[in-house]
Amino acid sequence: MTDTKVSADADGKNWQTVSPKYADQNTSAIQNDLKKLHDLTSADNTTATKTDIEQARKQLQDDIKKVDDVRQASVKTADGAVATVKNGTNADVKNRIAAVKAAEELVRSQRLMKQLLSCKRQTQRLCQRMCQMMRQWLQLSVRLMTH
Question: Which domain holds residue 19?
Fold first, then answer.
């Protein structure tokens, strides 16, 4: 009987550990099961039998399974949504991804245009400088030839 009570207490402690995962669900049945187990395993209870405690533990496990099944269904739905987004199977998602990629490409193109304009200005400055140097060279050549 002591082992049965210890196991029942462990079930209650285990639930307390995992219960935050089920905060969005109605867990009142589990709370009632835990209270019943606590009452059955308390030192004051001298009439509880091993069968009573085992049945209460089974009920607790069944109720935990029910809320876990609901949670797993939600997880499966969320996993499916994530997979849809990752795989881009949803037309709206595909369109949004394409729009983001197009915007990125536009930004890249704008940056390239700015770089090209900057190169063009630099080339123009170089050409102007070369023309000035050529004029100076020609002027110098003319002076040298006339003297």
Answer: 2-87
